[in-house]
Amino acid sequence: MQLIIILLATVAILTLLSGVIVFFGASKGNKVRSAWFFLAAIFATIWMASISVFLTAGKDMADVIDWHVKWTFASAIIIDVAFLGYIVWREKYGKFATFFFLAFGGIISALIFAKPELLYQGVILANTGNSVTMNMAFGSLYYTYILFFASIVPAIVISLLTQFIKTKSNRRRGGDLVIMLAFGGSSTLVLIFNLILPLFNNWSLIWIGPLALSATIIGFYYTILRYRSLNLVSVWLKIFSYVVLISSIAIIYMIIFALIFTALFRGSMPSVEVIVLNFIMILVFLILMPALSEIMTFIRSLISGPKELQKEDKQ
Hints:
Blueprint: H1 2-25, H2 31-56, H3 65-88, H4 94-114, E1 120-124, E2 131-134, H5 141-166, H6 170-196, H7 208-227, H8 234-264, H9 272-304, H10 307-314
Antiparallel strand pairs: 1-2
Helix pairs in contact: 1-2, 1-7, 1-8, 2-3, 3-4, 3-5, 4-5, 5-6, 6-7, 7-8, 8-9
């Protein structure tokens, strides 16, 4: 569980920094779309933080856990609304569709905070795993909650598909295709592990959905870099690249480290101290990589010698 929380924290930092960089680095013509992406990044970070607290909460947090559960449900709504705004804002129907789902999701979110009993009956904190008892009675808010995602996710995918078909620009078509595949894959995992499995009282795997969100962030980054789907100032684009690369390598490294550790020590997981130390070390190494590259270049130049000496040796 410690590894999962650190991975969630890493993806949360990646997501939030991506939103900050995109918003402040976007050109004037892309400020509104970048603002929607920034909003999605903020609530994605809240979503991941709330899930992390829920998964690790003990019985001593019984008084405050209800607040985190509310934010887990409500923030997921805003993420998709904001992402829809980013995708369709330039289209004729974009503003209407965005504000329609914003109102729809806003009503559901308000009811979650005002009358949570319409959505779930209670939160169970146990050593065997925390869970939420959903209100499955006919007419409960959970069915409306499911309906919201059953409507907005296809709306986003259809919008991307429509843009892909209509546009004649290979650049835009490529960007739409990458985002569609990344978002579709992430949404499928979120649907399975964060909406369907909880219906069967399986809450132990809800961390998979937030981690899957990293695929959408990386896909988004690739479309900016490869297809210029959003114009970013070159300095901010370099910072974005550095953040995405460091975070992605750190995530992959931590997963590989946990698998090797588990295999060597017969299924036991590393302690929090070991995980944190390894995480810090990989970050330090990645941050120092440019300096190490420069040092290696300098050493190679010393080994080969100045060009004048190389010419003399050949003679």
